[in-house]
Design brief:
With about 425 residues, this protein is mainly alpha-helical. Helix content is about 70%, strand content about 0%.
């Protein structure tokens, strides 16, 4: 395994992986305690949150160096698609379809919240600290809009479209990462209190409860002690599908890039290799759910998928440097105001249409985090819901460039340039 090149105390990726494994093991050991201080702690804090924040803390104090580690790209490219395959194998497609249009409505509310939040944050900082939004700041904000509606490709597109210089781009990229990860932590915390939020939202959760009950009933009916053959079949299907997804992604990307520029396929992130890996992996998983492979859920297919996903969560956490929160506080304040408007609009729309917190969280993360993290937030509610996060993220890639461009035009008008 490639070693980290940063100046952290633990420089080897193999050693860092061991540390992350120890963190995950400790979190799940302590969360399983039924009495004592740990039981009280996890009654307040969902177990998913320390899996995310403890690696962030290790990165922030210099114990590890997430920025120079190869673990996150590995987990993103291999473990995430493998977990999606395993989650989809056990999926009840009909029940997912019965979730209805509220997921789409909440996703679009999240997109509108990002666009509105940019304008509100710009005007608010013009009052609080005008220097923060003076000059070319609006250009940098367009890159966050691209990232928060679509993803990295849309962010890069805004950099080129609005001529954002490298220094400004780097400053906003840092603010993007910090604010987005803080918001993801907040969503994971809220997921642990979904029933309370759903009562406040007066949400109709019958479709989600139906899906969860169907999954529980299926697992109970087919549950068995997993044999070595079962586990090897799970491994073969998961990583066989991942290998096939990577194999097909390369010629697909090459075909997209060979298409005429006027088709504008790149505007939809269709030239992104990761995009196609996720699409293919999800498709293979859904297809397998209609075959006898679905019986592997009884041997714990989704549990194996959860293990892979928690490793991804830990590697996402190690990308966050909490110390940077104090380096550019006013730029971070801009981002926090921005994300707060996004959150407030989503909660307002959710209350109006009685959408459950699940749709708020996944619709938001499909915008802010994209395909790498929307399934993570979805599985905080139930593993069977991971595909919903993937599907909404794909829509974000499609809308990202256009909506971010409109946001940029609004910001330029506000800036008077």
């Amino acid at each position: 395994m490639e070693a980290s090149t940063g100046g952290a105390l633990i420089g080897s990726d193999a050693a860092v992986l061991g540390l992350l494994a120890a963190i995950l093991g400790f979190v799940f050991w302590s969360s399983a305690r039924e009495r004592g201080p740990w039981a009280k702690f996890y009654a307040v804090v969902p177990a998913l949150l320390p899996c995310y924040l403890l690696p962030a803390l290790a990165n922030s104090v210099g114990l590890i160096d997430g920025a120079h580690s190869g673990l996150y790209p590995m987990a993103r490219d291999y473990l995430l698609p493998a977990s999606l395959v395993l989650f989809c194998i056990s999926m009840d497609v009909g029940a997912v379809l019965r979730l209805g249009p509220k997921a789409l409505v909440m996703f679009l509310a999240g997109t509108a919240g990002v666009m509105l939040g940019a304008v509100v944050a710009f005007e608010a900082m013009r009052v609080i600290h005008p220097e923060t939004v003076a000059g070319e700041t609006w250009r940098g904000m367009t890159t966050i809009a691209g990232s928060w509606i679509g993803g990295g490709a849309n962010q890069a597109a805004m950099k080129e479209v609005f001529g954002v210089d490298a220094t400004l781009f780097g400053q906003f990229a840092a603010a993007d990462v910090i604010v987005a990860y803080v918001w993801m932590a907040a969503l994971l915390f809220m997921a642990g209190r979904a029933p309370a939020f759903d009562r406040w939202l007066r949400a109709d959760t019958r479709a989600i409860q139906d899906l969860q009950q169907r999954m529980a009933a299926y697992q109970a009916e087919h549950a068995r002690v997993a044999s070595t053959a079962d586990l090897m079949a799970i491994f073969a299907l998961a990583f066989g599908a991942v290998g096939l997804s990577h194999f097909l992604a390369d010629p697909t990307v090459a075909w997209v890039r060979a298409m005429p520029p006027e088709w504008r396929l790149r505007d939809y992130s269709l030239d992104s290799r990761f995009f196609w890996v996720v699409i293919y992996a999800t498709t293979f998983g859904v297809a397998l759910s209609f075959t006898r492979a679905r019986r592997l859920e009884g041997a714990g297919a989704s549990k194996v998928g959860s293990v892979l996903l928690y490793i991804l969560i830990a590697t996402i956490g190690m990308q966050m440097d909490l110390a940077q929160l104090a380096d550019r506080p006013l730029l971070l304040l801009l981002g926090l105001i921005w994300i707060s408007v996004h959150a407030a609009l989503m909660l307002l729309v959710a209350r109006v249409i009685r959408a459950p917190l699940f749709f708020v969280a996944v619709g938001s993360q499909a915008n802010i985090g994209g395909a790498a993290s929307a399934p993570v937030v979805a599985t905080a509610f139930h593993p069977a819901l991971a595909p919903v996060g993937v599907l909404l993220s794909v829509l974000g890639y499609a809308l990202g460039t256009y909506c971010a461009y409109l946001t940029g035009l609004m910001l330029r008008a506000l800036a008077g340039t």
